[in-house]
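agent> fetching stored inputs for the zinc ion docking request
agent> found them:
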Amino acid sequence: MDQEKIGKFIASQRKEKGLTQAKLAERLGISDRAVSKWETGRSMPDSSIMLELCVIIGLTVNDLLTGWKTTMENYKDIAEKTLIEMRRSEERSNRAMLNMEIIIGLISTAALLVLLLTAKYADLSGAWQTGLIITGFVIFIPGMYFCLRIETTAGYYECAECGHRYVPTLTAITFSPHMGRTTRMKCPKCGKKNWQKKVITTER
Ligand SMILES: [Zn+2]
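agent> prediction call returned; pasting tokens
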């Protein structure tokens, strides 16, 4: 039974007893707005007045409690589903970021190489050569910075020693040796230095 059904149930029981919302509210010592909220399924009666409500509208406590319990279970279900969905969406965005890192890395490296090779082999004046080399690094350095930022913040690193999953500092990522998606770093938990692999979530 969902909250809306419980509300309708309360309403029909109240009418059967010939009570208005205001009368019921008065007998329970609450506002008629509260009664209206239950009946439209926007809220549930507080447990402190549940018993009294049941007595007044001639509902068995069991009926109401069964509905109440099922509703609570629904809430738990919804909360769990939301958590799973949040985790999935984190995974998706981490994957997208890591793909973006590869693209930015490739483009900025390619741009640097093309500009450096042009400066070296094309028949250009000294000023043009300097200009091309500077432009190459102006593209490459921010590109690398973005890559390192993504490498640090998207997903987690897993310690090969103790299995601890964590987000390293940008400094640790910048000054550690990389090999594909693994980085040799010191684990903040066990303090051991090892090759740690990139993982998408903290879930195993
Ligand atoms: Zn460790």
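agent> quick read of the result: Residues 159, 161-162, 164, 187, 189-190, 192 surround zinc ion (CB under 6 Å).
agent> awaiting further instructions
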